[in-house]
Amino acid sequence: xxxxxxxxxxxxxxxxxxxxxxxxxxxxxxxxxxxLYAEQLSGxxxxxxxxxxxxxxxxxxxxxxxxxxxxxxxxxxxxxxxxNTSMAKMSPGQRRWDPVxxxxxxxxxxxxxxxxxxxxxxFTQVGMATHVYVANxxxxxxxxxxxxxxxxxxxxxxSLRFATELGVLEVxxxxxxxxxxxxLFMVELLDASARGYICENYGARFTLPERGPIGANCMxxxxxxxxxxxxxxxxxxxxxxxxxxxGEFFETTIPHCPLDVVAWHGNYVPYKYDLSTYSPVGAILxxxxxxxxxxxxxxxxxEAGTANxxxxxxxxxxxxxxxxxxxxxxxRNIMSEFMGLIHGQYDAKEEGFVPxxxxxHNMMLPHGPDATGFEKASRMDLEPQKLEGTMAFMFETRFPxxxxxxxxxxxxxxxxxxxxxxxxxxxxxGTLEGDWSE
Length: 438
Known about the structure:
Elements: E1 5-7, E2 13-16, E3 37-42, E4 55-60, E5 72-74, E6 95-97, E7 113-121, E8 126-135, E9 142-146, E10 150-157, E11 160-164, E12 167-171, E13 175-179, E14 185-189, E15 194-201, E16 225-228, E17 239-245, E18 248-254, E19 261-266, E20 271-274, E21 295-300, E22 307-314, E23 317-319, E24 336-343, E25 358-361, H1 371-379, E26 385-387, E27 391-397, E28 402-403, H2 405-409
Parallel strand pairs: 9-17
Antiparallel strand pairs: 1-16, 2-19, 3-4, 4-19, 5-18, 6-25, 7-8, 7-28, 8-15, 10-13, 10-15, 11-12, 11-14, 13-20, 16-20, 17-18, 21-22, 22-27, 23-26, 24-25, 24-27
């Protein structure tokens, strides 16, 4: 099937799969075209300021309240929420993992979510969780939604088709998609298996960061975000609706496919973004700027300039700084950083950090280039250099990220990560030049 998209971030879109299905002049006429039902999906309080008010009007074949029975609890043993009361007892040191293997048993996208860290409190809608997902089976006659969170999905291996209430998104490695809180979706695999990362955002929705002195251009441009056009199923057969609510999971059955929205308009919408369209900015004379210049999207907290979550990428780019140490410097940070690698090599970690892998550097814990990367960057000729074929990312939050039992017990947890800094030498010898002998 050919998938079509509309462009823009935060736009008030309107789309219809059948001509005349979208009412004009009012949102809920006495009788909707085609005998459809009008239903509003609100992602913000009704009284939210205009700039942050989020809602879409859906015109569907049957109202979503139509179901066969009550909600039944179900178990997703590896998907955890904050506060994670089953947190494993482990010191909060720097951690790194090799990729998680795709299981042999049939596993759908939702069944394959494995929580690595949690932060904040899902009940008060503050904080986040980081997950990996592994899947080898498409969802069939089942849809899912999260009442707790917005989901940012980052594929690393295998392409996915997200069939949502508002239309279809096809997402490949190197792209991302965001499914808003409450939006129904089904995930179909476009390859034999899939693996990737999820940032579960309990708080305010993701938005584009303020550019400040950078001005109107570069970074992530609104025109590069893609929203789906209306597409619907008219199927009279039993489907399962499962969802996440206050950290627990439930399901019910309905006598039809709930992906039956024929037309919609509004700004509360799933979307995708191609990371290769990100336009990096950086130092063009000397020094290494803060990594905030690589922020694709941010989810604000209640404190100005302090993010509940920042989504940051490290893409292909030129390095030209003179008289400068070009990789990220050694640092301690108030933010807690969960990193992943989609493809290629991360310039500050030349060994041990592989595509599909992960690392965690919690707030105020020191981290930075490994010994190999430091030596190379300290001795290299500072000619213009292009980093190519690389795409790393970071989910960072103001809150501490607590490890789950799954993360601590994962066989791919590297027991020698701290060893990457062990060869760093003392070079102080009381002279201005220092000791740079081998």
